[in-house]
Amino acid sequence: MKTDLARKREELENILVTASDMITAVKGTTLRYKDGTTKDPFIVRPHKNIQSFIVIVSKQNINFKVLEKHFKNIKANKRISKTKVYFLTDGIHPNRSIYKETESGVNILPDFDLLLSDNQKLVAQ
Q1: Residue 114 pLDDT > 90
Q2: Buried b (16+ CB within 10 A) or exposed e, 75-84
Q3: Residue 83, domain member (yes or no)
Q4: What are φ and ψ of residue 55, in 5° steps?
Q5: In a domain, 1, yes or no
Q6: What was the pLDDT predicted at 102?
Q7: Does the pLDDT value for residue 60 go beyond 80?
Q8: 67 falls in which pLDDT band (50, 70, 90)?
Q9: 52 is in which domain, residue-wise?
């Protein structure tokens, strides 16, 4: 999850490629972890429909034409699969609305509901 693309505005495609490569790498494997507090080991077996959600809170700090170019490249990139991008807001950047102490001007995008829906579908499997 990122607040906005800021300095990474030219890296969106690479972020998705990296996420997709990670999904491909863990699919069908057994992962071993240790609990961060107790240090007890536990095993995770990723679901066959594992996906990666790249969530970006604000569409601000990126030019529309640059974003359009990214999505054109992303659609054409065969390495990107099982990875989705969601932009949650547009309008005034949420950080600015905090300082103004108002939510006025922050527009919630349809991706917000889509993210919740996609997540619920995965959990229900």
Answers
A1: yes
A2: eeeeebeebb
A3: yes
A4: -110, 125
A5: no
A6: 58
A7: no
A8: confident
A9: 6-124
